[in-house]
Amino acid sequence: MDLTRRTFLIGTAGMSLAPRRTGDPFTLGVASGDPTADGIVLWTRLAPDPLTDGGHGGMPGRNIDVDWQLAEDEKFTRVVRSGTVTAQPSWAHSVHVEPSGLQPGREYFYRFRTGRHLSPTGRTRTAPAPGTAPALAFGVVSCSNYEQGYFTAYRRLGEQHPDLVLHLGDYIYEYAPGGYKNSDGKIVRSHTEHRCQTLTEFRLRHAQYKTDPDLQALHALAPWIAVNDDHEVENNWAGVHPGTSGRPNFTQRKVAGYRAYYEHMPLRRTSLPHGSRMQLYRRLAWGDLATFHVLDTRQFRDDQPCDDGVRANCSDRLLTGRVLVGAEQRQWLASGLQASRARWNLLAQQIFMAQHDYHLGPGKEVVLDTWDGYTAERDRVLGDLVASGARNPVVLTGDIHCHYASDLLVDFDDPDSRRVGVELVTTSVTSDGDGYDAPAGRAIELEENPHIAYADQRRGFIAARLTPTELRADFHTLPYVTRRNAPSTVTASFTVADGAHRLSRSNATAARAPQAAAAAAPRR
Ligand SMILES: [Fe+2]
After folding, report:
1. CA 459 – ligand 1 centroid, Å
2. How far is the CA of 431 from the centre of ligand 1 (A)?
3. How many whole angstroms from 428 Cα to the centroid of ligand 1?
4. What is the mean pLDDT of the chain?
5. What is the whole-number distance in angstroms between the Cα of residue 460 and the centre of ligand 1?
6. How far is 104 from 125, CA to CA, in rounded Å?
7. How far apart are the CA of 232 and the centre of ligand 1, in A?
8. Which of 261, 241, 235 has its CA nearest to residue 92?
């Protein structure tokens, strides 16, 4: 989502990334994802020349055999699974392998080989066994715009050694070079040519993002659970309705965007796109400790009301019949919550769920692309959460390019209303550039929205730790992303105790030191 209230100024485009011509087909790295107690998805894509015209990655138009290995040790002396798969030109020579029958709750290493070329080694892990609940360290990221900054947040998250990474959407941006700029007009490197509309353009864009070394390193370090938002197709699309591009042939763009997303992410075959449909809502258990209910808030929604944007006085947003996740997905969620025996139930989704009023005083001004544009659906889902009795609901959110921590209330207009659970919103990795810390504006925002406990307009990620008794969320921020190598600092920490359904601020991290030598942050 891009907030329409933001001002975009003209700036200069950065340097484009030179294609590599080494013959090594593993220029896009390796990845793993969607761990279960006995399996994992392993991914790579063959592309010796990833940014070559046509999006074929410099590969011939024929099938290529790729060997893979999964081992218990980094030196591959104890290989437990191996095989050969066929990389097909029709899927951009992407490779998705789903080894099963693995041991629960343990680390594995994997690699691929074709011809004389060996891929980098990736590290991954399976989920713990049912009936066990070892601690889980996980990271949450979203909104990684290649032009607007360096992906240092991915590197800093990797330094926290997460067992699992959640990417909640806007993994790529579809805009033409310079099509979406920070308020200060800064662009540090240029997107591939053209706004993404065709499969070729989406493939080139994904390939460009995958060449980033910080992105590659975080993929190679831990399994990801990834779900798309709008920019994997186009800004603010909604179900069958196009977004703000103003271009015809939306369905063709969606088909192309979905296909390229699948080709480049460690997704299971169950998420293989069929034309303009893709099964992305899914459930993943982490022993008895946690269940991740991954939601798709894009594919099944009604169009944004009142012509979208940030608006006051939009009564259509309150209409009972309007859906966001849709009846089928809501039923799937409700029954999964009812059946859940997990200590923590984490809803990994895209857009801001808590009410968020941007207007000081009486009346509300809200972002209509968020759950505030679909209030009846929010009431239904929060009602389902309560009715299910699912233990410790935690909503994980991206999209908005700011950190937020919030309590979720049955009635957001009554501060004493019943607490349903909490919402942790991760800021962007780079989108909107360096960002800023604005205590005065933040104080007003929080006063107007008393259920929101924390807001921060800088870039970063959430590093969380889950045990049977407590969730702890450290909000990391970076002082800049338009230069490389920023340190990250924990600027706020919250805990949620088992059964509490509300945030507690933790003061223990206020003085935690940055993790790398800090250079002076640029100030506008
Ligand atoms: Fe975004």
Report:
1. 12
2. 6
3. 7
4. 92
5. 13
6. 8
7. 10
8. 261
- In sequence order, what are the beta bridge partners of 290? 286, 344
- pLDDT tens sequence across 434-488: 999 888 888 999 999 999 999 999 999 999 999 999 999 999 999 999 999 999 9
CA distance 499 to 476: 26
CA distances from 72 to 76, 107, 109, 224 (A): 7, 7, 6, 19
The full DSSP string for 5-34 is: TS--------BPPPPP-SS-S-TT-EEEE-
Q: What does the longest C-alpha to C-alpha distance in the chain come to?
A: 68
Give dist(CA 305, CA 317) in Å, integer. 6
Distance between CA atoms of 367 and 460, rounded to whole angstroms? 22
Asked whether 140 and 465 are in contact (CB, 8 A), the reply is no
Residue 440 vs residue 373, higher pLDDT = 373
* Cβ atoms 471, 461 nearer than 8 A: no
Beta pairing partners, 241? 238
Both tokens assigned to 209: 């993002």
- Show the CA angle centred on residue 185, arms to residues 487 and 6, nearest 5°: 95
* Structural tokens at position 486: 């920023």
Give the Å distance between the CA of 229 and the centre of ligand 1. Answer: 8
Predicted local confidence at residue 18, as pLDDT: 42
User: Three-class SS of residue 111?
Assistant: strand
Rounded to two decimals, the pTM is 0.93
By the 8 A CB rule, do 296 and 280 touch? yes
189 C-alpha vs ligand 1 centroid, how far in Å? Answer: 17
Ligand 1 centroid to 399 CA: how many Å?
Answer: 5
Give me the percent of the chain exceeding a pLDDT of 90.
88
Q: Are 233 and 253 in contact (CB under 8 A)?
A: yes
How many angstroms separate the alpha carbon of residue 203 from the centre of ligand 1? 19
The C-alpha torsion from 19 through 20 and 21 to 25, rounded to 10°, is -110
How sure is the predictor about 510, in pLDDT bands with cuts at 50, 70 and 90? very low
Distance of CA 514 to the CA centre of its chain: 24
Residue 121 CA to residue 102 CA, distance in Å, equals 18
* Residue 42 contacts residue 97 (beta carbons within 8 Å): yes
Count helices and strands (H / E) in the chain: 7, 24
| End-to-end CA gap in the chain | 24
pLDDT at 522 exceeding the cut of 70 = no
Q: What three-state secondary structure class fits 405?
A: strand
Residues forming beta bridges with residue 394, ordered by sequence position: 346, 422
| Ligand 1 centroid distance, CA of 350 (Å) | 10
∠ Cα 444 460 484 (to 5°): 125
Fill in the amino acid letter for 71: A
207 CA from centroid of ligand 1 (Å): 19
Cα–ligand 1 centroid distance for 425 (angstroms)? 12
Q: Above 70 in pLDDT, residue 14?
A: no
CA of 2 to the centre of ligand 1 (A): 7
